[in-house]
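Tutorial, part two.
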Amino acid sequence: MPTPFGLFPPVNPGTVLNDLVTGTQQGIGAFVGDIGSAGSGLSLGTPTSISGFVAALQAANTHVVNAVTSAVSTGNAVLLPTADFATAAVVSVLSYDVNLFLNGILQAVNGGPVGLVNAVGDPIAADFALFTIAGGFEAIVLASAAHSIVADFTSL
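Running the prediction step on this input gives:
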């Protein structure tokens, strides 16, 4: 079936907006449910003595500290790849764009009529490709970290 080229697919904006609102509500509801049930793992039981009660509190405290430490460590680990992506976007991609632009100018100077088009088009095309890939990798990093952090807190 022939499909025309276009930037946006032919969809009903009302349907998309309704689906986004419904999905957001479902996501928030699931998050609240997960956090609400997260405390179910912390059980002090029914200690029969003061020392048993104190031991249960100590165990619960250790469990909470371990979960929070793990979650903070995971969050911190996300910062390094994110900083790498940001540095690449600001420094390396900009340098690459300048070189592509200069290559196009050189083509034009050497008599290539398409050189000026390449001087503008090549950096734009490269940026779309590079930022799409980098954005995908960043999304994977963030999703993995979020999954790990939620797992740390649901273990409580």
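DSSP finds three helices and no strands in the chain. In part three we will examine how such features are distributed along the chain.
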